[in-house]
Amino acid sequence: MTSIIAACDLEVGYGPIPVLHGLELEVNAGEVVALLGPNGSGKTTTLMALAGALSPSRGEVRWKGEVAHLPLYQRTRHGLSIVTEERSVVMSLTARQNLRLARVDPEAVVVDYPELADHLDRKAGLLSGGQQQILTLARALARRPDALLADELSLGLAPQITSRLLTAVRSAADSGMAVLLVEQHVRKALQVADRVYVLRQGRIDWSGTAAQALANQSRIESSYLGGNTSTATTP
Ligand SMILES: Nc1ncnc2c1ncn2[C@@H]1O[C@H](COP(=O)(O)OP(=O)(O)OP(=O)(O)O)[C@@H](O)[C@H]1O
């Protein structure tokens, strides 16, 4: 398998106290890797460090096997894409203009996202939250990045939109993209993921295949995601 992006012994924080403690993870071409864990465990910090928005105090990020030195804006020009819950479209522009601004062909996008076809000439600000997020993701994926870092894509959106976004992410991985997915809907995330890391207090506490995680799902949820921990054991 081809490693696209990896964290090697990564220690990162926002000040002198680290948030991630010697993190090791990798995402290969063609796979969706879910990064799960309770609030504050360091999921967003991991994505920001992989993207180059935070500098490690120890360890390194590797991009296609080489130590990554480029800052965030340059990594995004070299095949890395980041999508967050923030729906980063320009609200005063139409959907079509948003796509063109990113040098993406709107007509090609609607082939894969027919639900956007009737909305191309509407201002993004007038679309529903779900449509805005589909537009955001469609724009990112249409640029065919080598890796996608997806942080809570579906936050606040309806279940069918969540499923749609995750299906699109899965298809992108099937076409060769490496995807690291932070997603609050654990069951839905496991349905599209190949592998899983569970973070706890800035350390990988569990990792395995999605099938193994599904078999341990109730324990993972209760141990790591804030449920009843009285019967939980470490998977
Ligand atoms: N800008 C920041 N400045 C200082 N500390 C921060 C900052 N952002 C996050 N932290 C701290 O880093 C730790 C990890 O936060 P992070 O957002 O990475 O976790 P998370 O797993 O993504 O949580 P959530 O699921 O709530 O988004 C937390 O203790 C948080 O308070």
UniProtKB/TrEMBL annotation:
Family to which the UniProt record says this protein belongs: Belongs to the ABC transporter superfamily.
Protein name in UniProt: High-affinity branched-chain amino acid transport ATP-binding protein LivF
Classification via InterPro entries: AAA+_ATPase, ABC_transporter-like_ATP-bd, BCAA_Transport_ATP-bd_LivF, P-loop_NTPase
Highest taxon of source: Bacteria
GN (gene name): livF_3
Organism: Gordonia insulae
Domain called ABC transporter: residue spans: 5-226
PROSITE patterns: ABC_TRANSPORTER_2
Gene Ontology terms, MF aspect: ATP binding; ATP hydrolysis activity; branched-chain amino acid transmembrane transporter activity
GO biological process: L-amino acid transport
Annotated keywords: Amino-acid transport, ATP-binding, Nucleotide-binding, Transport
Record has Glycoprotein as a keyword: no
SMART domains for this protein: AAA (SM00382)
SUPFAM superfamilies assigned to the protein according to its UniProt record, in alphabetical order: P-loop containing nucleoside triphosphate hydrolases
